[in-house]
Amino acid sequence: MTLLIITDALIDGEGDGFALHPALAPIRERCTRMRRQWFACADNNPLGWYAALVETGPAALLAARCPDITASVRQAWVASPFHAMLGRDTVRLLPEADFPWSADDADWLAGELNPLLAEEGMHLHACGAALILTCDEPLNAAPAPFASIAGRFLPNRHPEGADGGRMMRLLAEIQMFMHNRPQPTREGYPPMTGLWLWGACDMPAPIPVSLLPVESPDPCLQSFEHAHGAPLMVCQAAQIDALVAPGRPPKHVLLAGAGHAVLLHRSLIPSFSRGWKAKLPGCESDLLHHLRNIAHAS
């Protein structure tokens, strides 16, 4: 009874409702016939959804897989690299799925930035292809989750918190440091032009004793128990071909995005609704309860 979560499946429509991401064309017809249950929820990328399901923070999940974090560390952040495209007045980021990132890339970037970060009492750790920034002194800042800016615009104001300005100056310094810097591991791919911090946790951080096996093409989830046929599959819409055969979605599918999610179930009585309009959406806590029950029932 596999659960498939597609993190950016819903796109804000021009009118009253949503459109499905164009990459979902191979499973669109089958999804349209499935029964629907709507929820309002925050946007998340694959790592964020997995962390929510296992009831811990994104940085805490990654930090538990990083054995070289020292006892002096008091805070950890997920550090998400990105490629930015400059407009006249804006900076737009490539979607995560359009910016491949590997363990070699993560090792290279940590080696490049750690001499700079050491002056701030910080250290960048590679955890497979994922990156964690650790701080000896916590930063009081609340930046937007990476899922809310990837594929969209870089915020032009400081995050909330007493250290919001310091954080943005640090990220700007990293961007300037990386400008035109040779990136040997990125040959053939867009260069990394910046880093975004999100999903922080205090250290040391407790994590669940057991974690759900997950199948995902997302690089940040590759360090978790990963096996074909896992009860949980998580991806972005552009990665759907890596998990699901055309026209063959599993019994339970969550289409998320644009501040909402719709939980789809295969049923003997098909849905007769053709549009994607949120009807009487439930709350995020109820959604997570439903998803955990489905995943653990497998």
Kindly list the characteristics that best describe this protein:
298 residues, 4-stranded antiparallel beta sheet, 6-stranded mixed beta sheet, alpha+beta, globular, 2 domains
What would you say this structure looks like, in words?
- Helices cover 22% and strands 23% of the residues.
- The strands form 4 sheets. Strands 4-14-13-1-12-11 form a 6-stranded mixed β-sheet, covered by helices on one side.
- It folds into 2 domains: 3-51 and 210-297, no CATH class; 57-202, no CATH class.
- By secondary structure, the protein is of the alpha+beta class.
- It has helices at 25-32, 46-53, 58-63, 103-118, 164-178, 284-297, and strands spanning 3-6, 10-12, 18-20, 35-40, 75-82, 84-86, 91-93, 122-127, 130-135, 194-202, 214-215, 232-235, 252-257, 260-265.
- The protein contains 6 helices and 14 strands.
Q: Can you give the mean pLDDT?
A: 91
Q: Can you give the helix content as a percent range? A: 10-25%
DSSP, total strands = 14
What coarse outline follows from CA principal-axis ratios?
Answer: globular
How many DSSP H or I helices?
6
SS-based class:
alpha+beta
Query: Ranges with pLDDT <50 over ≥5 residues?
Result: none
What proportion strand?
A: 15-25%
**Order of SSEs, N→C?**
EEEHEHHEEEHEEHEEEEEH
Distance N to C terminus:
5 Å
Assembly classification: single chain
The largest pleated sheet is described as: 6 strands, mixed
What is the topology, as strand order, of the major beta sheet?
Answer: 4-14-13-1-12-11
Cα gyration radius (Å): 19 Å
Number of domain units: 2
